Structures are given as C-alpha cells and as structure tokens.
Amino acid sequence: QVQLVESGGGWVQAGGSLRLSCAASGRTFSSYAMGWFRQAPGKERECVAAISWSGGSIYNADSVKGRFTISRDNAKNTVYLQMNSLKTEDTAVYYCAAHSSPRRPGIPGTHPLQYDYWGQGTQVTVSS
User: Fold this and answer.
1) Beta carbons of 29 and 21 less than 8 angstroms apart
2) What is the pLDDT of residues 37-73, one digit of tens each?
3) Which whole-number Å values give the CA distances from 124 to 41, 77, 103, 119, in the listed order?
4) How far is CA 6 from CA 56, 71, 105, 116, in A?
5) How many degrees, rounded to 5, is the angle at CA 40 between CA 37 and CA 45?
6) In what order do the strands lie in the sheet with 68-73?
C-alpha cells in the first residue's frame, strides 16, 4: 500500500510559478512510475506529466511542454512538478498518482485507470 500526499498548491498570477510536491509512504515508492494529473471543474481528469520508476522516461502533455517539469527523488520518496509560466487554463486540482507494477519499463500510460494509488489533490488557481 502506498499513501500519497500532495502539497505546494495555491494562488498565483498568470506568468508565475509553483512547485508541487508529492510525498509517498512505503519502501516501494522508488519502484513505481508516477504521474501528475489535473482536473478542472466540468472536465475529465488528464495527465500532465509522468515519470518512470528510474526517472529515465518522462511524458509531458502538449499543453504543458516547455512549462512544466516532473522529477523525482527516490531517496526522499518524493515526486515534484515544477510549473512555470502558468496560465489561467492551468487552474485545476492537481493529483499525484502511482502505478503499482514495480520497475515497469517506461511510462505506464496516461489514463487515470492505469494508476492505482492517488493523493487527495491540491488546488492550483491561476488568475489573470
């Protein structure tokens, strides 16, 4: 079992930056691929970034390429999402998620059903 806790959300003006963190419990974190998802009101949950267990493979959604960076520190059981040049359309609840097949090569996918453990979410609000 893995428990995930997000932090770092908040309010920011357009063009600003935020860094989200996701702290994981459990010794198996380092063997799981991780993803960051977001869900805006009335919209489906979408994957914005994902990273393989080793950090060697990374996915970024087209909407955030060049602005968001996912990274992980397995020694700290933490995955990060650095968000720069934020836009009003980035406003959403952001969730981190873990894919529980250990040491799976590459990115397991970008659909929410491909991830097994979820945090409670952190709100990001970008104002114009």
Assistant:
1) no
2) 999 999 999 999 999 999 999 999 999 999 999 999 9
3) 12, 22, 31, 15
4) 23, 14, 25, 16
5) 40
6) 4-7, 18-24, 78-83, 68-73
